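#onboarding

Welcome to the new folks! Below is a worked example of what a typical request in this channel looks like: someone posts a single protein sequence, and someone else replies with the predicted structure as tokens. Don't worry about understanding the tokens yet, we'll cover that in week two.

Example request:
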Amino acid sequence: MRIAVAGGTGVVGTYVVDAALAAGHEPVVLSRRRGVDLITGQGLDQALEGVEVVIDVSNSGTVDRRKATDYFTLATSTLQEFGVRHHVDRSVALSIVGVDRISGNGYFQAKLAQERAALSGPLPTTIVRATQFHEFAAQMIARTRIGPVALVPVMKVQPVAARSVGKILLEVACRPPTQPIMEVAGPKHESLVEMARETAARHQCRLWCISLPVPGSGGRAMRDGSQCPTGSARIAGPDFATWVRSDDALAPSL
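Example response:
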């Protein structure tokens, strides 16, 4: 099967491409590096020739609500428009668990707008909402590190490996849609600050990870597990303790 992967050069996109190749499919990466622009549609006509399914794991590159919303809605509409033109059968889009429960987060509101654009479009679409990735701890360290100190938000998470999400996205893409929205999570609840400490230790990085309670409604949502699944979710391993000892944990640089 010929499968287009929007954002195929990112972390999850790379794992989707790897899974597709391992399964004998032909992945087509849609990214600016490959001459494809999801906003203008440049390069899409050629890239979508013979494609049966589009998997969208693209990112806006900003957390600003307005800018992210503009990007996600326009990119989604463009993918849907060109997909219909080239007789694509269906699409799958990656989103975030809890995106519909947390107010005041501009990026989450943008992702919710993306979901609406995808589900209201002409292509049959499945939204796969995932929890934070195991890789999230390293990303948080990179964002908050000041010298030997990283201020890590107090956050209850149920993280999942990005590689596992990539495999599930491919699995969903290879079958007809059965439900509009599904959730994916890892097997265990974790503390983000403990994840950060274990990540730093895995990288042999001398770093003091300090817990930082974030104020306001956003901080409460982090602490009370609002970004964890509340109903039936697809549980995918490995757990964080297993993952952090794997080669995948060494991919990001601290």
